[in-house]
Every structure is written in C-alpha cells, then in structure tokens.
Write a structure and sequence with these properties.
alpha/beta; Alkaline Phosphatase, subunit A; Arylsulfatase, C-terminal domain; 18 strands; Alkaline_phosphatase_core_sf; Sulfatase_N; ARSB; calcium
Length: about 550
Amino acid sequence: RMVAAALAGLSLLSLFTCGYLAWGSRRGGAGEAPGNLLGEEPAGGAPRSQPHIIFILADDQGFRDVGYHGSEIRTPTLDKLAAEGVKLENYYVQPMCTPSRSQLITGKYQIHTGLQHSIIRPTQPNCLPLDNVTLPQKLKEVGYSTHMVGKWHLGFYRRECMPTQRGFDSFFGSLLGSGDYYTHFKCDSPGICGYDLYENDNAAWDHDNGIYSTQMYTQKAQQILASHDPRKPIFLYIAYQAVHSPLQAPGRYFEHYRSINNINRRRYAAMLACLDEAINNVTLALRKHGYYENSVIIYSSDNGGQPMAGGSNWPLRGSKGTYWEGGIRAVGFVHSPLLKNKGSVCKELVHITDWFPTLITLAEGQIDEDIQLDGYDVWETISEGRRSPRVDILHNIDPIYTKAKNGSWAAGYGIWNTAIQSAIRVNHWKLLTGNPGYSDWVPPQAFSNAGPNRWHNERVSWSAGKTVWLFNITADPYERVDLSARHPEVVKQLLRRLSQFNKTAVPVRYPPKDPRSNPKLNGGVWGPWFKEDEKKKKSDKSKGVNKQKKSKSKKKAN
C-alpha cells in the first residue's frame, strides 16, 4: 500500500542531460563504400530556410534494442546521432505497422481514419481513406520534393491508394507489411503468393538484383540525394523493412554475435547491425551532397519489439501488438544542426501524430482549419526544452476487438463497456480496458537459450475477469502496480475521456478479403486490382436497369 501510494503521488519531472559516446571507425556497407563515420560535408550552396526533412522509420525495433538503452547489440550510428541530438524518452507510437504509419502521415488517431482494427491485410480492399490529406501532399504545397523508399503498408487495392497518388514524387519499395529480404516475394496464405517490389506504380523487376532490402533501400536513398539540388527542400521518408521478420541478414553482420545462443536473437542482432550501418551511410550522403547543415533527421521505430522474433523491450512490459508500454513506447530521437538544445534528453510527452503538424510548421507550410488533427507542434519542446502542448494520448479504441469475455458496462461504472480493447494516457495516468494483449516482462536472460525461454519471463496473475487497469506511468513506467482499485475516481475520469473520444470516431474500415487480389490474376505481382472502369460499368448497368423499371412502372401507371 505504501508503494502504491508513493507511486500515485509522484509528479513528472522534465530532465535534460548531456550524453557523450566514444566513437570508433568502421567499414562501410549497407549501400556505401568504406569511409569515415558520418563524414565531412563539402562546401555547397547556401541553404534555404526550409530544412531538408529525413524521416527514418525502423520496423519492429524493441525499446531496449539500441546501444544507449543498454542493449548488447552495437548501434554506434544511432548512439552518436541520438547523443548529439535530442533523445525522446517519453515517445509513443502505435502497437502495429499500419496504425503507426497512418498516424504519421495524417496526424490523426486511428478512430478518425477508420483504421482502428488490426492492420491492412494484402487481400483486403482497403487503404488509408482518400479524403485524408497526407504529410507529403502538404509539403509539396510549399515547394518540397517528396520521395519515399521502403515499406508502405497503407493499402494498394486501387491505384489512387498508391504512394505516388498520396503525395510522393517517387516511390521505391514494398506495398505489403513483410516479405523476403532478398527475393521480395510474400505469401499471404498457401497459394496466395506474389512479388512485392515497386518503382513508382510498377513492379521493379528491372531494378531487382537480389540485393538485401536494407542495403538496396539505402542505395536508392543515396541516388535520390545525389540527383537532387540541395538548394531546394526535400522530404525523404525511408521506411526500412528491418528488423521485421523474416529474420534474414547478410553473413558478415553475424561476426560480432556468434556468442548469442538464441538463433532468433542472433539473426535480429545482425539485422540491426546492418540497419545501423545503413543509417550511417545515409548520413554520409547528406554530408557529401550538401544537405546536412540544413537538415532535420528524425528516427523512430513503428512499434515495440516481438520477443518471439528476437526483439527486446526490457524493462517494459508486453510486446508488439499490445497496449502495454512494450508495445507502444518507442526508440526515437531527432538529430539536426538546427536544434538549440543539442545533446539533451526530452522527457515530455510526444506522439507519432505530432510529426505531421511539427514538420509542416517547420517547413513553413499551412495547416488548414478544416483538418481536425490529433497531433501537436512539438518542435519547441524538442529543440528548446519547453513543455509539451500534449497532455494526453488516445492509444486506441478498437470496437471490433472484444475478447475480454468478462468485460461489461458494470465493470466500467456504466460509463464504458470494458469488453472493448482500449487504452488512454492522461498526464501521469494510463488506463487500459478489455484484453490489452501479451503482458509478460521478458528480461535479457530469456534469450540465453536456443529458444525463447518463458521460464525466465516475469508474469502477473490477476483475479479472473479483470478488464480494467490503471497505472501512474510517470512513477511506474514498467506497469508493475495496478492502481485501479485504489483510485476508482481516476478510473471514472479516464473512462469518461474514452467515451468522449469515442463519440468522434468514424466507422471501422475492415472489409473481408477480395479473391481478385490474388497475385496470380495480376501477373504474379501484388498490386492494385480494383478497376474503376468495372465499377462504372456495373453502376451504369444498374442505372440502365433502374431506368427500364421506372419506364415500365410509368406505363403501368398510365
């Protein structure tokens, strides 16, 4: 009780600490010849006031899986960039791929785009709704060249859903959520397989030389930077496939991790080592071609790590796909010569939706009044150490996911049905309802054997039928002390806030699979299958039939 009371009473402190990490030379790779780490920038044209924006999104990187969080995996590039920039240590994303990407590109919560449930599946006729203005579209309005390299995962069933139709001048990468790193093939189910590598709107057969995707995407980013005029602003969005499963990496990246017995952790470490080197080479290109001094580099993971696939979120609870901190609290930092408080740690609340208004404002763009955003401009928070304008985060409300069999309106004090999976953060407090997902703490020693050893995991047993949890995240970031019974009034307040958010939700978009999506019907390639002409023909036929029916009914009436 004393511990719970102490946790409930602690307040949030903003901490800013300088960090310095030793730096050693290393050889090139992942798309670049050997060279000095981060390199030297040659003299170039005078930079414009609009900064170059480089957004690097890693896939499934665990919270612990970066050197400065204590990982055994070496990430010297990430460590140095973060140490010389601003580390975001109260930074949140969504627990899965599509939700994080949709919120990054629109600045809106899932409940306001209809993507509240799960991810967009390859066979679903679904994509980010076309009436949502995207970040690259807004940046193009103020003169930016916009380029995307890597994983899209925001739907492609219609051509209008493709990246080049959503604001990007060019696109090179994959449309699906995962696939082979070398062959770029993906099977969604037995017999439903296809090729998934695109250059703009067409399959990139001619550009595929069997290169490992992390290296291939880095080479493409280098080409874009080499061919663009650094006197003109550029938005380069690099969404790496790594370190998402399948666990594949070039052989030489294993050399430092032979001592890791767990095969998944060893492969994961090699993948992350390759990714770290790739980011070094992107930074080298920024310096080489004259972008760096007027650039903002943002690094983020899209969700927490998956322990069964080698990722570690220790000491956070839970994993990818859950609303525990291990699923949604991410590795993130900003590196830029334009930062005022370099070498600092930001403990203020920041969410992935905040990048939309932050970057548009930084680019001297305008945010339309009719766009109802859920994100905030947090540049001054990050750059100058000011308080965050954000005081809450709706982690999500998923009305389809109601697997908490014992959830009820009664458990939610008549305010909320606790069978519904939802999570919200308000100031220090975090509330979860329904079934939040896999809830173990997975310590580093869990990876000491050949397979993930669950005997090492810390597990919490709660009373049967529990569907509400309350934590003071500021005091208890590891979610070890549930305070819901001790503070029912706080629970009620947060349930009311959930109810208020829910009133603004749009209907869920989660259609059944469409057999026309089979790549066999599209030349063996995953790609748009919905034909607008077919829809028009069907609608024209139905209109014709309706006209005939109306004319017949008129004759009968006469």
